[in-house]
Amino acid sequence: MSARLTTAVSEPRSSATPEHGVSLAEATTVWLRIALLSFGGPAGQIAVMHRIVVDEKRWVSEERFLHALNYCMLLPGPEAQQLATYLGWLMHGTRGGLIAGGLFILPGAIAIMALSVIYISFGQLGFVAALFFGLKAAVLAIVLQAVARVGGRALKTPLMRALAVLALLAIMIFDVPFPLIVLGAGLIGWLGSRIGWMPARVVTDGSNDDERVAAASSSAQPLRVAAVWLVLWLAPVAALLIAFGPDNVFSQLAVFFSKMALVTFGGAYAVLAYVAQLAVDHYGWLRPGEMLDGLGMAETTPGPLIMVLQFVGYVAAYRAPGALPPVAAGVLGGLLTTWVTFAPCFLWIFLGAPYIERLRGNAALSAALAAITAAVVGVMLNLALWFALHTIFHEVRKLPVAGLWLDVPVLTSFDPWAAALAAAAMVAVFYLRAGTAAVLLLCAGTGLGLHLVGLI
Asked: Region Disordered: which residues (predicted)?
């Protein structure tokens, strides 16, 4: 258990020196470090956050971290960014949540915007593709490491391991929607605690008298939080509709991605197929294949994978700029998309976190959330396998098996250089214990070197 957060949340937010001894300035530098290392999608990002916040800094205990993570897994939107916001709020109130969640977005937003400008204005340059080639191999190793770490901590009983396997099969073979997997796992955990199959580790560190938690008991506080964040989120949407009408590209982006913010359960992969279909076929914002290029940018830059939506917003506005210069319109479209995508994330945390903290002593709820964590490990493993297929093979096809469809690689599309680089990255991560930044830099440099000598 963390000694530093045993009383962390019992200190009033107005205190100049929090009782846990971590100043806001110190926390800010750590949140920025986490943001700069947040590669590899949610699995890698959560692993990096856990290593720094729990293992290295010991700001929160293992149980408190997983309690917060389980809640974030239930929310629409990027769970890693919401987890950073939750932990920042837990340490330093609303300011801490804004800093932690905002910094988590910032490096990726800057990187995706720069790459969007390069991609659309100058085409997919060879050296950029080579860097992505190397980074994808590193990301694969980092994701697998994250699955191993989270699984090692969460799958401690046969029931937990069984839940992970069932979740993997459900999403990989039967294509069960992620929200149903989460709800099913939670129900199993809750019932298991009732009949004694699944004793829960109740999260009891910290004080239930915390000012932030107690605020949830007031009916006025949630109303104020909801009102402020709903206005911040939806006022720009309403203003664009009033000023330009529903057919303007900026109005379309604001409305469409506000809707997406409500249904993006299961992270980026759960919604990108739907977004790609509408962006290409219905709105005509992107050309076929460009969504995958945007996803490649998001996978190989820090920050949430859902940041790929900023690329969509940039391209859409760039190609329908109106009276604005195309690049300026693209930048505004990308920023607008980012705003309506992430503003709701702060709403969910600031509105719900106090209630979740009050319930952390509830054994049945803890068991349900622990079961959800086990199921999420299976989902993470499915994403890792999907990513491995698309990294090592250039083509993947659907194979009918007993009335179901499985993704299988086209063996003739095997890429030996990608496989060799991925294997080297795994050796560096699992056996040499190399840091995330070092692995990413080495793989990116290797990809560029292979391009310069004409091997890729």
From this structure: 1-20
Q: Under a CB-based contact definition with an 8 Å cutoff, are residues 268 and 299 in contact? A: no
pLDDT value of position 66: 81
Residue 13 confidence (pLDDT) above 50? no
Tell me what pLDDT residue 156 has: 83
Interval 98-140: pLDDT, tens? 999 999 999 999 999 998 998 888 765 677 778 778 877 887 8
Tell me how far apart the alpha carbons of residues 360 and 312 are, in angstroms, rounded to a whole number. Answer: 39
Tell me the per-residue pLDDT of 166-212, one tens digit each, with 9 for 90 and over: 999 888 888 787 768 878 988 998 888 888 776 555 454 544 435 55
- Residue identified by tokens 């937010």 is 13
∠ Cα 395 125 268 (to 5°): 55
Distance linking the first and last C-alpha atoms of the chain: 49
Q: How many residues would you count in the chain?
A: 456
**Separation CA 307–CA 252 (nearest Å):** 18
Mean pLDDT (the chain, rounded): 82
Cα gap 57→38, rounded to integer Å = 17
| pTM for this prediction | 0.71
> What is the Cβ-side half-sphere exposure of residue 302, based on CA atoms within 13 angstroms?
20
Predicted local confidence at residue 220, as pLDDT: 62
> Rounded to whole angstroms, how far apart are CA atoms 78 and 42?
8
Confidence class of residue 273 from pLDDT cuts 50, 70 and 90?
A: low
